[in-house]
Amino acid sequence: MIATSNIEVSKTTQSRLNEVNWSDLGFGKIFSDHMAVVEYRDGKWHTPSIRPYGPMMFSPAISALHYGQAIFEGLKAYKNENGEVLIFRPEKNAERLNKSAQRMCMPDLPVETFMEMLTQLVNLDNEWIPKGEGESLYIRPHMFAIDEYVGVRPSETYMFCIFTCPVGKYYTTELNVKIEKSFTRAVKGGTGHAKAAGNYGASLFPTQIAKDAGYDQLLWTDGQTHEYFEESGTMNVVFLSGNNVMSPALSDSILDGVTRNSVLQVARDWGYNVEERKVSVKEIIDLLKAGKLDGAFGVGTAATIAPIKTINHEGTDYELPRDNSADFAGKVSTYMDRLKRGLENDKHNWNYKVS
User: Fold this and answer.
1) Which residues contact 83 (CB under 8 A, 6 or more apart)?
2) Is residue 273 over pLDDT 50?
3) Which SS3 state, helix, strand or coil, does residue 64 take?
4) Residue 217: exposure state from Cβ atoms within 10 A (0-12, 13-18, ≥19)
5) Which of 164, 162, 163, 94 is nearest to 129 (CA)?
6) pTM for the complete prediction?
7) Overall fold of domain 175-340
8) 16-33 tens-digit pLDDT
9) 17 half-sphere exposure, CB direction, 13 A CA radius
C-alpha cells in the first residue's frame, strides 16, 4: 500500500476550465487539468504522482506498441445535491483491472493504490464534473508496457495512468444492431474477459462494415458456433421477455461488466426473474417473430443503458417495442442515474464518496 501522503502533486499553473464549451461536451474529446501516474520497475510500483495532463514521451520500441500489453478501465464520477463527489463502484474496476493484468501477464496494482490515486485526482479536478442531465466525469485508468525492447516476452516495466473527461451522453438515440455471425469478438481461452486494448482494435473492422450498412453496433455471437449471444458492441447485452430478464452467462469470452452486474441486481431487487445463461440467436428471433421480446439493451459504463430498437438477422430487420419510461430499460436507466447522483437509497453501498 502506498500512503496518500506519498503521492507527489504538481498542480497546473493554467487551468483549461474556461476553455470548455459546457453545452457541447460530446464524449471523450475534452480532458481535465491533471492526470495521475505511477511506474512499475525493479519488481515494484514506485511513488505515484499527479501532474498536469499532457503528452508522455516514450520510445517507439516500447512493448505496448508491438505486443499489445495494454489494458484499461472506465468509470464515472457525479456530484450530489450537496456538491459531494460520488464515484460508482470503483473497487470493482480496481479488481477487474487486476484480472485483466493477470491475463495479459502484467503486474497487479494494489487496490489501495488505485483508490488513493483516483481519490486525489478526482478531488483535485472536481470542478470538471458537469451537472447536466446525462453528464458525468468519465474516468479512464489504464496500464501499458514500457520496456524498450523488440522481442516477444512480458515487459519488465509498466506505466499506470488515470485521466478524466467531462462527458455527455454516449448514445443519444436508440440503436439499430446487426447480429454478427462471420467475425468474432472473442473465443474460448482468449482475452475476451479481460479489458485488453486489442479486443477493441479487433472489433473495429466488422463494426465499420455494419455501420456502412446502416447499423450502429453489432450483437456478437460465440466464436465456435455463432449460435449464442455474447456482447453488444462494446457493452454487455440484456433481453427482456415478460418478467424474465436474460443476459448471457459470464465466461472467458465475455467481460464481467460492472453496469451489467448492477442492473441485474436491481432487476432482482424489483422482483424480476433474472436468468444468466446461454441465450441463443434462435430463441431471441423466435421471441421477436412471436411479438414476445419486450426489449433489448446494451449495458456499459459509457452508455449505462443503450436501448435497441432494431435487430437485423440474416438480412431481415426486426423492430422492438418503442422504449418508454414505463418499460424496464427506461425505469432502470432513470433509477441508475438517480442512484449515482445520490437521489436514491444506496442500499448496496455502491457509491464511493470522495472526501
Assistant:
1) none
2) yes
3) helix
4) buried
5) 164
6) 0.95
7) D-amino Acid Aminotransferase; Chain A, domain 2 (3.20.10)
8) 999 999 999 999 999 999
9) 12
